[in-house]
Specification:
Tachylectin-2, Chain A; Immunoglobulin-like; single chain; 599 residues; 7-stranded antiparallel beta sheet; Jelly Rolls; mainly beta; 1% helix
């Protein structure tokens, strides 16, 4: 919702064409399309954190998500003390911009901040965030923050802008918990409207959707509940409401407290809503969010739990699919196309229908990391496509006995190199990823694993193939020990030879070793020099971005050792996972390697 009515949301202009699988790269001569096949899915994952109630908006060609998050080790979402912001163009690859709203010094919001909603206030040329502010006893109120650019936010001086009448609602600032949360804001007929989760003094306490209106988002008038829980358990509150009119139908999406499902009420008039007609549009998820990406076309987002590796604890991520309805807006359903169907033309075998693999699935079995980038990768032995996929479960493996093959859609070579990550068993003929010519299916390049689960970077020099129509083929026809292949980040690029990083070790550096590897969190990179020289160690993530750089040191002839304490350049703990390292000698990279960090 961008400050428009839920009854007839107005379309927003697209500032650019969204291409979900291709990265547009501009060379000196022209813009050329480069293929990218990386197996990420439409999830939002905040590493090391649980993602809770959120709002996704799309003001132009970029999506913005605002969410409250807590560290994975925190047992309850009620301890959410920060609202964060991240952006994406395709719902797969995210940039976390950072925290935007946190608990304050004033008592009404010293306890927690939750459940942001973000709307556009065109009259004042600003964005407005409505959020739940909690005092130390978790009594809840409505508060606001404003922004001109969606990145920097300022709380309004009038906070809290709304709390309910204690005579009409079950709300007491002196109690240990008072419901008044999860704001949903829209504009209709010259007024702002807000819905909030609340309870009213009906039959000893009934869950209702509090409804108020305002001319300015600051001064609110209670207009009576929009909906009262008339079901068999009326004392349950209605959480995370989303109200939309699609076609001729009014739809309410919400969750009943402590119910692991999202309920849907639909009618031609909201006065006809009743819990007797409600259905579960989905089981196993919470906190629905609808985002209009085209006129009366919606993304359906929600938070989903899954168990952490080697733990009994749960974390939460956001997942996004498309909401379909009938021609008149009736019967909303969630569309879940297979994530490989978008860019892979031919798929055979059970192993491929189970892909992409969500997360670092071997960790659930206590095995080493595979070094994936993002939230997914391809593996011909893993069997977990992710939360709500209905395919597999965390840690499940199909083993090495299954087989299959898949071919990507054809593309025309526009770059001069294709980078990829490959791991798994070493079977050059039967367990491979390859680049083939579309004209005759001849193999132009082929790679297999190196006998390790951790994927290693490879580069195919395709500078002589410009304009050639090709496709990628992944094959597993092997049933022997470690007869599987791991693949990620198949990226076509156009770069000069000088920009290609050196691989391996050469020149004055030998005997390179990282130990312990994995580190937890400290690891040491040792190496031998054939003569004294100035040296430095760089730690890089799997996208080649610097995580930590050591000070320059005077390297001696013989064995040298540089410690990394598992922290980044800002002193913050680096995330668990795989990294590359580069040893610089006299300012030039002389050797590279890989290591992993566990916690």
């Amino acid at each position: 919702m961008l400050g428009t009515s839920p009854f007839r949301p107005s379309p927003r202009g697209m500032l650019g064409t969204l291409c979900l699988a291709l990265v547009l790269t501009t060379s000196a001569q022209a813009a050329r399309a480069m293929v990218r096949l990386d197996f990420d899915q439409k999830y939002f994952v905040h590493p090391g954190h649980q993602v809770w109630d959120f709002r996704l908006i799309k003001p132009d060609s970029v999506y913005h998500i605002f969410y409250h998050a807590i560290p994975e080790a925190t047992p309850l979402a009620t301890y959410g003390d920060t609202i964060w912001h991240a952006t994406t163009a395709d719902l797969k690859h995210w940039d976390i911009a950072g925290p935007v709203v946190a608990v304050g010094q004033t008592e009404f919001e010293q306890g927690a901040v939750w459940a942001p909603d973000v709307v556009r206030d065109e009259a004042n040329q600003r964005w407005v965030m409505a959020y739940t502010a909690c005092d130390p006893s978790m009594n809840q109120r409505l508060a606001l923050a404003t922004s001109t650019d969606l990145f920097s936010w300022t709380k309004v001086p009038a906070n809290p802008v709304l709390e309910p009448d204690t005579l009409a609602y079950i709300w007491n600032p002196g109690s240990s918990w008072s419901n008044f949360r999860d704001p949903f804001v829209w504009r209709d007929q010259g007024l702002w409207h807000v819905l909030l989760t609340a309870k009213k003094w009906y039959s000893g306490g009934t869950g209702i959707l509090y409804h108020a209106t305002s001319p300015d988002l600051t001064t609110w008038t209670d207009v009576g509940p929009l909906f009262i829980n008339d079901g068999p358990e009326p004392w349950l509150v209605l959480e995370s409401p989303q109200y939309r009119m699609i076609g001729d139908y009014h739809h309410l999406f919400c969750g009943l407290f402590d119910d692991s499902a999202i309920s849907l009420l639909s009618a031609a008039d909201p006065a006809l809503w009743t819990m007797a007609d409600s259905t579960h549009i989905e089981v196993g998820s919470y906190a629905p969010d609808l985002t209009e990406y085209a006129p009366e076309r919606y993304l359906f987002g929600r938070i989903v739990p899954f168990i952490l590796p080697q733990s009994a604890a749960y974390t939460y991520v956001a997942r996004f699919d498309t909401l379909n309805t009938g021609p008149l807006g009736e019967n909303p359903t969630i569309a879940r196309p297979h994530p490989l169907d978008e860019h892979w033309a031919t798929i055979t075998g059970l192993i491929f229908r189970a892909n992409p693999t969500f997360g670092d699935n071997p960790l659930w079995r206590g095995e080493p990391t595979v070094g994936l980038v993002g939230n997914g990768y391809f593996s011909s032995q893993e069997y977990y496509q992710g939360p709500l996929s209905g395919i597999g479960a965390p840690g499940v493996s199909l083993g090495d006995g299954v087989q299959g093959r898949m071919d990507s859609q054809a593309f025309v070579i526009a770059g001069n190199r294709i980078d990829l990550l490959v791991g798994g068993g070493h079977y050059p003929e039967t367990c491979t990823v390859a680049l083939l010519a579309a004209a005759d299916s001849s193999v132009l390049f082929r790679a297999t694993g190196d006998g390790q689960e951790l994927m290693s970077p490879l580069t195919w020099d395709v500078s002589g193939l410009s304009g050639t129509s090709c496709f990628i083929r992944i094959v597993d026809a092997e049933t022997g020990p470690m007869g599987h292949i791991n693949v990620d980040e198949i990226n076509e690029r156009r770069e000069t030879a000088s920009s290609v990083p050196p691989r391996g070790q050469s020149g004055p550096v030998t005997r390179v070793r990282a130990s312990p590897n994995p580190g937890n969190p400290i690891t040491a990179v040792s190496f031998a020099l054939d003569h004294p020289a100035e040296v430095r160690l760089r730690i890089l993530d799997l996208r080649g971005r610097a995580v930590w750089v050591s000070p320059h040191q005077h390297g001696v002839q013989g064995i040298n050792r540089i410690l990394w304490n598992g922290r980044d350049n800002h002193g913050s703990p680096a995330s668990a996972g795989a990294y590359f390292f580069a040893i610089e000698v006299q300012g030039s990279v002389a050797a590279t390697g890989k290591l992993s960090l566990v916690k």
